[in-house]
Amino acid sequence: MASASPAPPRVSRRRRAAPPPKTRFDRRLAKILTHATDVFYEKGYEGASMRDLSRASGMSLAGMYYYFESKEKLLYLIQKHTFTTIVERLRERLKDVTDPEQRIRVFILNHLEYFLANQKAMKVLSHEDDVLKNSFGTEIAAIKREYYRICMDLLDNLKRAKGLEFSSRIAVLSLFGMMNWIYTWYHPRVDADAGEMAEQMANIFLQGVCASGKAPKKRSAN
Amino acid sequence: MASASPAPPRVSRRRRAAPPPKTRFDRRLAKILTHATDVFYEKGYEGASMRDLSRASGMSLAGMYYYFESKEKLLYLIQKHTFTTIVERLRERLKDVTDPEQRIRVFILNHLEYFLANQKAMKVLSHEDDVLKNSFGTEIAAIKREYYRICMDLLDNLKRAKGLEFSSRIAVLSLFGMMNWIYTWYHPRVDADAGEMAEQMANIFLQGVCASGKAPKKRSAN
Predict the structure, then answer these.
(1) Which of A110, B174, B188, B214 is the most buried (most CB within 10 A)?
(2) Cβ–Cβ contacts within 10 Å for residue A195, how many?
(3) How far apart are CA B156 and CA B168, in angstroms?
(4) Where does B95-186 have alpha helices with state H?
C-alpha cells in the first residue's frame, strides 16, 4: 500500500503499559477488579451477587459493601479502569507517529493488544454496556465518547490526506465491530498474536476504506 | 469495482421471507418466542426467571413449564428459529446469483436485513452465545457452523476467482464482527436502512480483502 510519508516505521509492538499502581491500596483494588471481572464474566451482571463478588475476591461481604457500596459501583470501576488505561496508552503511542495510516494501525494494535490480554474484560464491557445509569453511566459514556472521537479524528485525517469520501460513522463502527467481536472467537492456541491480528485487520480495514472511498462517483449498483 | 460477470444485477432488496408459520400452534409459538426474546433482552438470560417469561407471554407459569420445560429450552428455540430462518432465506436468495462478489453481497444483505428487523434477537444471541449445553448446545452449534461454513465457502470462491490470498478465518470473523456489532449502535432514525448499510459494509469488506489479498508478496511493514 502506498503511503503518504516516506518509509513509515513498522508499528512498534513493544508493550508500553501505563505506570503500575503505586500504593498497596491501588494494587489491592486492581486485584479486586480482576476478580469482579471474572464473576461478571461467568455469571453476567444480573446473575452476579455481592456475595459472589465477595467470595471471589476473598473480602468479607461487609467489607465489600463498605468499600464498594454496590455491584454497580464495581462495574463502573472496571469500565473506568479499562477505558482510561486504553486511552492513556493510545495517546502515549500516538505521540511519535504522524502518518495518518500508521496512526490508525497504532489505534488498532493498541485496542487489540489490551483486549486480547484482557478478554474477560472485553466480554463484560460489551455485555454490560448499557447497565450503568446516572452519574456512573454519564462518566463512562464520556470516556467512551472520547475514545470514539479519537478514532473518528484519525479517520478524518486519513480522509483529508488521501481525498477520500465515505461515512466515517459506518467505517469507525465497522472497525470497532471487527475488533470487539474477537472476544467471541479468539483462541490463543489457534490464532495469531495481537500484533499479527492487528496487521491483518488493519489491512482489510484500511484498504477497504481507501478503495471504497476513492472515487467520489455516483452510487453504483456494484 | 470490476466484476467477473457482465453487469451483475443489483442485489434485490425484496424481502423473501420464509413461508409463514401455518398452524395456530405455530403462530402462538412464534409469539411466545418473541416475548421471551424481549425478556432475555431486558434482563439477560441469567437474570430472567420462568415467572418473568410467563408474565410477558401471558401464559400461566404451569403452562410455561408444561410446554417449554425450562428457560434453557426457550433460549434454544429462539436460537434455532433465528438461525434456521436466516439460513433458509440465504439459500433461497443465493439460488439466482453466480458472481462470487455478488454472492457475498447477498450474504451480507440477508444477515443485516434479518438482524436489523430483529435487533433484540441479535443482542440475545450474541450475549447468550455460550449458555446452551448438552444436546441443545450441540444442535445450535451445528446450525451455526453450517452458516459460518456457507460464508467461508463464498469467500473461498472469491479467492479462487480472483487469485487472492488471505486468511479466510480472520476475514470471515471480521465480517461477522462488522455486521453483528451493529446491535450496539444502530439507530433507525439516524442510520441508513439495511440495504444501504449492507452496501457500505460490503464495499469496505470486499475492497479490503480484494486489495489486501492481491499481492502474494512477503509481509511488509505497511
Answers:
(1) B174
(2) 16
(3) 7
(4) 100-117, 119-127, 134-162, 168-180
User: Of the candidates A44, A126, A211, which has its C-beta nearest B207's C-beta?
Assistant: A211
Predicted ipTM of the assembly? 0.81
Query: Can you tell me the distance from the alpha carbon of A52 to that of B196, in angstroms, rounded to the nearest whole number?
Result: 46
CB-based contact B209 A204, cutoff 8 Å: yes
Indicate the residue of B167, B179, B184 with minimum beta-carbon distance to A129: B184
Distance from CA of A8 to the nearest CA of B (A): 8
Identify the helix (H) or strand (E) that includes residue B67. helix B61-68
Q: How far apart are CA B200 and CA B209, in angstroms?
A: 14
Give the 3-state secondary structure of residue B88.
helix
> What's the CATH class of domain A71-212?
mainly alpha
Query: Domain boundaries in chain B?
Result: 72-212
Let me know if domain B72-212 sits in CATH 1.10.357.10: yes
- Compute CA distances A146 → A90, A142, A151, A158, A216, whole Å: 12, 6, 9, 19, 29
| Torsion sign across C-alpha atoms B101, B107, B110, B113 | negative
Q: By C-alpha distance, which of B93, B103, B75, B87 is closest to B144?
A: B87
Is the pLDDT score of A41 beyond 60?
A: yes
Closest CA to A173 of A220, A217, A200, A209: A209
